[in-house]
Amino acid sequence: MSTLICSFDGLHDNRVLRYYADFEAHILHMDTQTEAGEKVSVHFTGLLAHWFENVVQDNILFGMDEISVDAFFEQYKDLLGGAISYGFPACCSIEELRERMDREHIRVFVIDSSLGLCGFVLAQEVELQCL
Predict the structure, then answer these.
(1) Which of 9, 26, 57, 82 is most buried, by CB atoms within 10 Å?
(2) What does the alpha-carbon distance between residue 34 and residue 39 come to, in Å, rounded to a whole number?
(3) What string of H, E and C letters represents the secondary structure of the chain?
(4) What pLDDT, in 10s, does the model give residues 71-129?
(5) Cα(59)–Cα(67) distance, rounded to whole angstroms?
(6) What is residue 1's predicted lDDT score, i.e. its pLDDT?
């Protein structure tokens, strides 16, 4: 069973200019810039939760992949095991989270870092726009 669903081209070595989450609208938006100065915006909709670590002033992305839900639970089992009792991400148990992700068609987007920001976004859709 493959855990990688797809990789998103166009984000390798992009610098993160800004990101913000609108919890009422269930969106997360990230603006990035290529080494050539072109802007690429990443729009997540149907946002359930996100988790970023190592956020610094000059974050540089390595890339973003969509992985399977099974791979997500395996890769982040330690984080989820410690955080789920505090309501992150938005459920009371691992089983409830898995059921909710299935019911709401939540996908898993893993952001890898060359420098700084890395983590994951749980959302229904993602769209990349070159500006």
Answers:
(1) 26
(2) 6
(3) CCCEEEEECCCCCCEEEEEEEECCCCEEEEEEECCCCCEEEEEEECCCEEEEECCCCCCEEEEEEEECHHHHHHHCHHHHHHHHHHCCCCCCCHHHHHHHHHHCCCEEEEEEEEECCEEEEEECEEEEEEC
(4) 999 999 999 999 988 888 888 899 999 999 999 999 999 999 999 999 999 999 999 99
(5) 22
(6) 46
Please state, in angstroms and rounded to a whole number, the distance separating the CA atoms of residues 93 and 52: 21
Tokens of 71: 């791979």
Per the CB < 8 A criterion, the answer to whether 8 and 92 are in contact is no
CB 64 within 8 A of CB 1: no
Summarize pLDDT for 10-66 with one digit per residue, the tens. Answer: 899 999 999 999 999 999 999 999 999 999 999 999 999 999 999 999 999 999 999
